[in-house]
Amino acid sequence: MTDAPRTHCELAIVGGGPAGLAAAALAAELGVETILFDEQPTPGGQIYRNIEANSRKHDALSNILGADYAKGLALVERFRRSGAAYEPLSAVWQVSAAGKLGVSRKGRAYLTRAGRVILATGAMERPVPIPGWTLPGVMGAGAAQTLMKASGLVPEEPTVIAGSGPLAYLVALQLMKAGAPLSAVIDTSQKGLFETGFAALPVLSGFGRDLLKGLSWMAALRKARIPVFSGRNLAVEGISRVEAVSFETRGKRQRLSASLLLLHEGVVPNNQITASLRCRHVWDTAQMAWRPWTDEWGATSTELVAVAGDGAGISGARAAAHRGRLAALDAACRIGRISRAERDERALPERRHLQREARFRAFLDSTYCPTEAVRRLADEAIACRCEEVTAGELRAFVAEGFTDINQLKSFSRCGMGQCQGRMCGGTVARVLAQSLETDMETVGYYRLRPPVKPLPVAQLAELGNAERDLRPSPLGVDGDPSQRV
Ligand SMILES: Cc1cc2nc3c(=O)[nH]c(=O)nc-3n(C[C@H](O)[C@H](O)[C@H](O)COP(=O)(O)OP(=O)(O)OC[C@H]3O[C@@H](n4cnc5c(N)ncnc54)[C@H](O)[C@@H]3O)c2cc1C
Questions:
Q1: How far lies 21's CA from each of 102, 131, 298, in Å?
Q2: Quick one: which of 298, 303, 332 has its CA closest to 34?
Q3: Site residues for ligand 1, CB cut-off 6 Å
Q4: What is the rounded CA–CA span in Å between residue 271 and residue 195?
Q5: Which of 292, 324, 372, 419 could cross-link with 19 by S-S, CB 3.0 to 4.6 Å?
């Protein structure tokens, strides 16, 4: 990393997870002048966070994080060797349709121009807005895992994990192995992995290892006598912090004491940048989330911008790397480093792997519906935590006639806080859709404006007027609801 900001490049990649690392490595190997920007201090993204330091240590933590985590090292090493430039601790707060990036690094904002941009911004945990979810002591299971990977931090208080999906069980197992006092897991999924896996065996051939891995995590918890409940309609109890979590199980309400409650209902694409660019988006019914529309190379409806990895729709770490390489091949072809024939030829193995991954993803999507995150919110539940707006307050606005999501944003201030709508966007849209008895496509999503990451005004002021031509493109603002994100 150099200290002077780079002012231009042929290809800018945002995000240093499997998609961004794979894309940057291949593009640089093909001779494309590539810069990878990532807000984290080290490469790896969510799944392989801090992989270089943790794998060097060969300690208990690297054993706990397991073989799947260790696989990330090869990806990082190839990226390091590739010659791609790397800008860690660099938050990209804006991308323009003309390929200008606004970057904030070391307390300074600057602009970079790129011939092409690949957004590999990954996923974020789906917010789970149950009553009491904003109390201290409630956090995402993935966030707890982040603390463990980044700093070796492990909970010391009685911990309950509640949610649905493989990551909930993986984190439970990792925390248990790391010595956290895990008192229970509340599984909110509608269907059990064993039954659904058995029923889906014909389409899951080749994924026996993945299926067995999931079942072995559950078995390990049972062996350690960690109670696993099947529960729904969760509510957090506590006055100044979480004291307990209650839930329905077998027709009765049950209560478990907890000092730390880790919620997880899957992950959703982190699409703040494509939304601010007014790229066309589509509602993914299976994943219950918006994702940018892309062609088979990850190109979006905005000419210079492609998306790869979970930011283009949740597909997991292996698929993210394949999608990153496809986007890199297309970039190298557009920039003139390889021919279309070479691009297509090199893409074949990536596509074969992707098709295979898609079968398993479809199985995961149908097994792990995020029930708790999408059910009707209680009036007192907070929908927007930055501005502390409840679902009941939103319903009152709708009753007064504020039936457009952006009107609701303006009047309720939801989406105008620190997170710029990342945490509340889906929830506010859902409350609106439920109130109007319509669907998410009809409601659309917030009209987002840059900066998509918090940026001190002082840094913006130093930029002077240079950011003027960074206005979002007018794409996607017509009457087509799929373009309203
Ligand atoms: C908290 C969490 C934990 C997870 N843990 C696991 C796990 O243990 N095992 C597993 O199989 N899957 C896990 N997943 C899912 C897994 O992360 C993804 O399937 C996979 O990493 C997707 O890769 P990606 O390259 O698309 O994105 P990511 O790995 O998410 O990488 C995206 C990167 O982009 C950066 N970024 C985002 N926006 C900006 C911006 N504006 N400017 C600069 N940088 C930016 C992020 O900080 C991140 O480093 C986890 C997901 C989350 C959200």
A1: 20, 39, 15
A2: 332
A3: 14-20, 37-40, 45-47, 91-92, 120-125, 142, 145-146, 167, 170, 267, 270, 309-311, 316-317, 320, 453
A4: 34
A5: 324
pLDDT band at 46 (very low <50, low <70, confident <90, very high): very high
> How far, in Å, is the centroid of ligand 1 from the Cα of 45?
5
From the list 269, 234, 273, 484, the residue with the least C-alpha distance to 371 is 234
Angle CA 329–333–337, to nearest 5: 100
Distance CA 464, CA 144 (A): 39
pLDDT at 417 over 80: yes
CA–centroid distance, residue 270 to ligand 1 (Å)? 9
Residue nearest to atom 14 of ligand 1 (CA): 47
- The amino acid present at 46, given as its one-letter code, is Q
Distance CA 231, CA 68 (A): 29
The set of residues, in sequence order, having a beta carbon less than 8 Å from that of 221 and lying 6+ positions away, is 169, 172, 173, 176, 185, 228
Whether the link from the prior residue into 451 is cis, omega within 30° of 0, is: yes
